[in-house]
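Posting this for the archive.
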Amino acid sequence: MTDAPTAHPAARTSSESGPSGVAGRLVLIAGATSASGEAVARALVAAGASVVAVGTRQEALATLEAAVPGVQTYACDLADRDAVAELAARVHSESGRVDGLIHLVGGWRGGGGLAGQSDEDWDFLERGFRTLRNTTRVFFDDLVASPAGRLAVVSSTSVEKPFPGGANYAAAKAAADAWVRAIAQGFSKQAPQSAAAIFVVKALEGLESQLGDDVVRLWEQDAATVNGRRLPLEPERMDG
């Protein structure tokens, strides 16, 4: 990985340090072939962003391309750091540096009380966390250099109130929360124009469109107001 670049000069000017919207930004969605990925891609494209959609299944990516015209798709195993580095090289060559990373890789595994927390379920959940580590480490320099870098993940209310049957899931989500908050601390020191946020939800089903709207809204708010924040994802939430 190359040495970290200094923050983009425009990020230090008063005209670029405040909210400026997502239009014209390049945003990468990891785990883009889910229902939430399609909703986020649709919202970003509608707001004028350029979207790079990444998934593992070419057929699902083709379906996404048909559903959301304008997205640029890439197949990549995000659990493989070398593959992510190759992805970054392609994106940089074909589209430039990214201004946003929306990480939507994940899924629920659990049940059966504490004794039912299987190694197989943990391996599945840990793989999702690994994709977060890989993508953020590889694209961190991009988000630091951007005039308005944004990172977002979706977490769970179970982090604050875990139950035995969901211990694996809550532990994996807690690890992701801590990782993103560590990145937020890095942004506060290296790139105050950038922000890392955590959307928190009990169940994402039915809230996919709301997630898309809230992702777009991250670029409409000053970085300092959302950096390191756990933001409830619910239809009735009003921004202050």
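Strands lie at 26-30, 50-55, 72-75, 100-103, 150-156, 195-201, 230-232. The first strand starts at residue 26 and ends at 30.
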